[in-house]
Design a protein that fits this description.
Elements: H1 2-11, H2 20-49, H3 51-55, E1 59-64, H4 70-78, E2 82-95, E3 98-107, E4 118-120, E5 136-139, H5 141-147, E6 154-157, E7 160-170, E8 184-188, E9 204-211, H6 218-228, E10 235-238, H7 244-282, H8 284-292, H9 297-329, H10 331-337, H11 348-374, H12 378-383, H13 394-415, H14 418-450, H15 457-466, H16 473-508, E11 512-517, H17 522-530, E12 537-551, E13 554-555, H18 556-560, E14 570-574, E15 582-585, E16 597-601, H19 602-608, E17 615-620, E18 623-633, E19 646-648, H20 650-653, E20 659-665, H21 671-681, E21 686-689, H22 690-729, H23 731-743, H24 748-785, H25 794-814, H26 817-821, H27 824-831
Helix pairs in contact: 1-9, 2-7, 2-9, 2-11, 2-22, 7-11, 7-14, 7-16, 7-22, 9-11, 11-13, 13-14, 14-15, 14-16, 14-24, 15-24, 16-22, 16-24, 16-25, 22-25, 23-27, 24-25
Transmembrane segments: 21-39, 256-280, 308-334, 354-371, 392-414, 420-446, 710-729, 749-782, 794-817
Domain ABC3 transporter permease C-terminal: 260-376, 710-819
Main location: membrane
Length: 832
């Protein structure tokens, strides 16, 4: 090892020339992963630090469909230092003929227990008392602007008159990351009394936020609350996980972007491998001399590994510095854009994660060429034969395989999403195999067709260069193609989902979901719609909400995990006859009055591991209903029509207070008039416009696509670095080719055209493979995952091909100018 260290130290005196691509590839990949990790860690820390403020207290007791009884409220208050009651519901805000959906929140005088409600103008919570005999309200600026409301203007909320007192600038108990059905309206809890806003069966949640005595054991407090409200429909939350939905979204999106950054490192790995291979070729005589002097392969390998380790450390540190510097430089902007208070700062875990990824990728891609060269015989190295093409030893192959396994395990561990991680690694590996195969095919086709081209010397020279033994085609197609593949996949998925939404919405989706229809309003409601010729059809069902608490007597989450059906309350209904096709079991008779029975959506039931005869306990209005699973149904939620995971027999639920849910199918041109007529006749109902909900989803998809494209841009930038490195490495070869062609009578224009054609053909090949990969990825996500019809988007595909051709053309021509300017005699003498 001392001899290897001496050799490595002396070799490094030559500097890092020739390793710029190595360092840039490693630096960019590590920087991207470190930057994403630091932002993710800042949001995580913000959610943790602001847990109590975001929740509105140290803990929260939540009930669905009802408020706490006086006895329950007294029990809660007896264990708290402060208590605040909040009621959350949806309603319609109207000004004249203008209507808008809102997520309303009624609060008491103690709100907010923590943090401050920022208002414009800063009137304070006392302004909710109103003016002119009308209760006051605070509105989200989006809602106020949509309805043209200013402070002092009057409006109606669910048919009840209010006066706007201020705009809401920031709610302390909101992450701003949820999918609310509408902008916020804040009113006083007293204003609900006698208003009819919370009629029997109306959908609302009551939340009791508390400040607990210092030193309270939250786990013990949770256990006591669940024991006291065991059959009362309680949902407990505390400051340890104040916003699990936001936390889950941040973790998953952050992990996904880190995995995209790993794809960028894989692109950089191609450049690392090419750089190391080129470096070892330049060091062939040095290696041969060491072998001739008796150095063993292990000594040579150790010497070169030490050099690569030192250079890798430099690249990783530079990447960490670049990523941290970029995030800290943009800290002010990031903090302003976040819906919660965050502090962007350096953090060790994401930096160590990025460094580990960088070290593993550098080692994996550097060991392959190093192990091949270090075991060659000195004679082969001196003669510059093709013996260096032999495969590495089994030991080296096993080491590389082990490092790949460590990389995959580390990515699964850090992300916590093993399916997404393995899918990403599988996609990258598949893309690399396709690109490698395409590179071999392009080289073979170029070599086979070069001699067939007659009368076009530029094209023939380009094809011969692409098919040459030391062609740069493989490095170019692999590096550029993988970067373009990631962008192509993002483009096709985004375009596919948007296209599916636009195609399916007019023909399949209803115009409105209408909730909070009282049972005695159903016939007048249907009669009103029957008088509207624009309405195509109306579907109605009874609707309640319940929480699945137990499966076969055991805690549901302990049995089936964090499935979406078990997170929070879900809509449930009852029916005499099935609306969907049964896949298993039997429906109950029309006059059935026995034990409660339930029919479950087949897909969700399979995901939960349910079978016929299992027993589900669902808490509805504070009452536990245990029902036996009698059947499974094929529920198609993609139609955006009425669909319930759980449907009970009528006798089990018909006596409970509930409202009706309706879907209205009508053309877009009639939507505004339908809403005005219904709101005028039934001010208490809430109409949710499906197109508005779809727009919110589309906006979210667009934001995710932009974030992914930004991360993929680093992948493409890394590919461009590799492309430029390959073009720079081939500059001397181009100089010799240009000198030879000039000697044979070729003009500068012909030679330049040859270089341009070579670059364009390689870029087109990379772009075409990227289109293929993007189409496969788009089809897999849209068709298999989202279960929508996928249609290939030609415009993003053409942009990808054009980008690939342009990138290789520019890089090739830049590094062709100097070879064209050199005199043939000097170049040929140097070659000789």
């Amino acid at each position: 090892m001392s001899a290897a260290l001496t050799i490595a130290r002396r070799e490094l005196r030559g500097g890092v020339r020739g390793f710029r691509v190595f360092l840039l590839c490693l630096m960019l990949g590590v920087a991207a992963i470190a930057a994403v990790g630091l932002v993710r860690e800042a949001i995580r820390a913000g959610l943790a630090d602001q847990g109590a403020t975001l929740l509105g207290g140290d803990a929260q007791y939540e009930f669905t469909y009802r408020q706490a009884t006086p006895e329950e409220r007294d029990w809660i208050a007896s264990r708290a230092e402060a208590l605040s009651e909040v009621v959350d519901f949806r309603s319609m805000v109207s000004v004249g003929d203008e209507r808008a959906l809102t997520q309303a929140k009624a609060v008491d005088g103690a709100y907010p227990l923590l943090g401050e409600l920022e208002l414009d103008p800063p009137v304070g919570m006392a302004a909710l008392a109103g003016q002119g005999g009308l209760p006051g309200a605070f509105l989200d600026p989006v809602l106020a602007d949509r309805l043209g409301l200013a402070a002092g203007d009057r409006f109606e909320l669910g048919g009840t008159p209010f006066v706007m007192m201020a705009r809401i600038l920031r709610e302390p108990d909101s992450t701003g990351m949820g999918m609310a059905f509408g902008p916020r309206t804040l009113i006083a809890l007293d204003a609900l009394e006698g208003s009819g806003l919370l009629a029997p069966g109306a959908l609302f949640e009551s939340e009791y936020r508390v400040l607990l005595p210092v030193g309270t054991d939250l786990e013990a407090a949770k256990a006591a609350a669940e024991d006291r409200f065991e059959n009362a429909g309680l949902r407990w939350s505390d400051s340890r996980r104040a916003s699990p939905g936001a936390e889950r979204f941040v973790d998953r999106l952050g992990s996904f972007l880190v995995l995209v950054g790993l794809a960028g490192l894989a692109v950089g790995g191609v450049g690392i491998s090419a750089t190391v291979a080129g470096w070892l070729e330049r060091k062939a005589e040095t290696i041969a001399t060491l072998r001739a002097l008796g150095a063993e392969g292990g000594t040579i390998r150790a010497a070169f590994l030490m050099q690569l380790a030192a250079l890798g450390l430099v690249g990783i540190l530079a990447g960490l510095g670049l990523g941290a510097g970029a995030v800290l430089a943009a800290a002010g902007m990031i903090e302003r854009l976040m819906p919660i208070p965050v502090e962007v700062r350096l953090s060790a875990p994401p930096m160590l994660e990025a460094a580990l990824y960088g070290a593993l990728v550098a080692a994996i891609f550097a060991l392959w060429p190093l192990s091949r060269m270090s075991q060659m015989r000195a004679a082969l190295l001196y003669r510059e034969t093709q013996g260096g093409r032999r495969l590495p030893s089994w030991r080296a192959f096993g080491l590389v395989t082990g490092l790949v396994a460590v990389l995959v395990v580390a990515a699964v561990w850090f992300s916590g999403l093993w399916q997404l991680t393995l899918g990403t690694f599988g996609g990258v590996a598949f893309a690399l195999m396709i690109l490698a195969g395409a590179a071999l095919l392009v080289r073979w086709a170029a070599r086979a067709s070069a001699h067939l081209v007659r009368g076009r010397p530029a094209l023939r020279a380009a094809l011969a260069a692409i098919g040459a033994p030391r062609s740069e085609a493989t490095a170019v197609i692999l590096s550029l193609g993988l970067g373009l593949s990631v962008l192509a996949a993002v483009g096709q998925v985004d375009a596919g989902l948007r296209g599916a939404i636009q195609r399916d919405l007019p023909s399949e989706a209803p115009a409105y979901f209408v909730i909070d229809i009282q049972p005695d309003q159903l016939q007048p409601f249907l009669s009103t719609l029957d008088a509207m010729p624009e309405v195509g059809r109306v579907e109605t069902v009874p609707m309640l909400r319940g929480v699945v608490t137990r499966i076969n007597g055991q805690n549901a989450r302990e049995v089936a995990g964090e499935h979406w059906v078990l997170r929070g309350d879900r809509g449930v209904t009852y029916a005499e006859t099935p609306r969907e096709t049964l896949t298993e079991g039997e429906w109950w008779p029309a006059d059935y009055a026995g034990e409660p029975l339930v029919s479950v959506s087949a897909e969700e039931g399979a995901e939960l591991g349910l079978k016929l005869g299992d027993r589900l306990t669902v808490n509805i209005l504070g009452r536990d209903i245990e029902a036996r699973i009698a059947s499974f149904r094929n529920v198609d939620f993609s139609t955006m029509g009425i669909g319930f995971v759980l449907t009970f027999n009528p006798a089990a639920l018909s006596g409970a207070p509930h409202t009706m849910l309706a879907t209205i199918y009508a053309p877009p041109s009639a939507e505004a008039q339908i809403l005005r007529d219904l709101a005028r006749a039934f001010p208490n109902i809430t109409a949710i416009r499906v197109r508005d909900a779809i727009d919110r989803v589309t906006e979210a998809l667009g934001a995710i696509a932009r974030a992914t494209s930004l991360a993929a841009g680093v992948t493409l930038l890394t590919g461009l670095v590799v492309l430029i490195g390959a073009a720079a490495a081939g500059e001397r070869t181009r100089a010799w080719e240009a000198a030879l062609l000039k000697t044979l009578g070729a003009t500068r224009a012909t030679i330049l055209a040859s270089f341009a054609l070579r670059a364009a053909l390689m870029g087109a090949a990379a772009g075409l493979v990227a289109i293929l990969f993007g189409a496969i990825a788009g089809w897999a996500v849209v068709d298999l995952v989202m279960e929508a019809e996928f249609r290939f988007a030609p415009l993003p595909a053409l942009a990808i091909v054009a980008g690939g051709v342009l990138a290789t053309l520019i890089a090739g021509l830049i590094f062709a100018l100097r070879p064209l300017a050199e005199r043939p005699a000097g170049v040929l003498r140097d070659r000789e």
